[in-house]
Amino acid sequence: MNSRSTDRDPIDVCISVDVEFTINGALFHQDRSPLGADWVWGVSDKRSEGLGFLLDCLDRYGLKGTFFTEVFNTYHFGDGPMRGVVQATLDRGHDVQLHLHPVWLYYKYRHWKDELSIRQRPRDIFTDRDAEEIAAWLGDGASILERLSGSRPIAFRSGNLNAGRILYRGMYQAGITLASNIGVGLSTPSEEELLLYAGVHRIDGITEVPVTTYRAPLPGNRLLLLTTTGSAFREMRAVLDAAHRLGTGPVVLLLHPHDFRIALHATPGAPPSFRPDRIRQSRFDRLCRYLSRHPQRFRVTTFAESAQRWSASDRVDNILLPGSLPGLATRLFENKLLPAMRRLPQ
Question: Which residues contact 325 (CB under 8 A, 6 or more apart)?
């Protein structure tokens, strides 16, 4: 962590990416199938507008990210599709850590359809299980990712940012002691002590580095997660500048490869085609350019690179950082008005 003081002290910024396939409603719709690597790459006119764009943009500005990679999908797809994604990420020098969506576990069992006949909806959360079962899931996931990547993960992010004290107890039992499970702007934990907006925190032996939550500058102070999907560049810049001004960090951004392309479904149930999402691509490009031009203010780091430093820190920050009115106006235009005018999916 960084001391509050001068412009000579950069704050930590982590570009975190959740890499995941989509189950595509296939558990309940017989005319659908899960979508794998194509969903992540998002190829349009022989160019990847998803993961390929993201990796190229990071390369262009000399930045590294942490890619939280979902691996329970291998129970449906096998190792091949996600192994290719992992290798492409590692080849660019990025950090690969563990991400899990328990909903994929239905495909682990031969009679998964019988299980679905008992339950109304698939469960895609951790917090309704006991610590021992969570630890077993994490152990299985870590072994799969080690098989795909060649190294054991040291950090974990739960699917849907589903967090509770029981999850941290399970993590401790599994021996994974670094996490980024909390994102209050998207998913509010039921335990009050987990209402963490930023910073580094200790929870039952685990070092938690939440995805940054910030407040919209309007009456009611709506809470928003810092993402390339839901935040305009001006908002991201305002949050970064406020964090540097206050000397607080890390600032953790959340994005996905599929944020940067638009899926077009010509026929229900058929695989989609893709086209680039120029608005979100521009946001990310501008963000990377801004970070790369101000290394004296922002230290772009990864979970692997900063794990020991964060774990050793005795400083605790939980500051709710502000957005900006110009950023809010830009977001409303880019996310609502412009897609409506162009008749694009929102």
Answer: 217
CA distances from 345 to 20, 88, 263 (A): 20, 29, 8
For 11-342, CATH gives 3.20.20.370
Residue 3 to residue 234: CA distance in whole angstroms: 25
Instruction: Check: CB of residue 216 under 8 Å from CB of residue 327.
Output: no
For 11-28, the pLDDT digits (tens) are: 999 999 999 999 998 888
pLDDT tens for residues 279-298?
999 999 999 999 999 999 99
Map out the domains of the chain as residue ranges. 11-342
Find out whether 49 and 261 touch, Cβ atoms under 8 Å.
Answer: yes
Q: Do strands 95-100 and 155-158 pair parallel, antiparallel, or not at all (unpaired)? A: parallel
CB-CB contact of 260 with 53 (8 Å): yes
Q: pTM score, two decimals?
A: 0.92
**303: number of Cβ within 10 Å:** 28
In 3D, which of 281, 297, 191 has the Cα closest to residue 248? 297
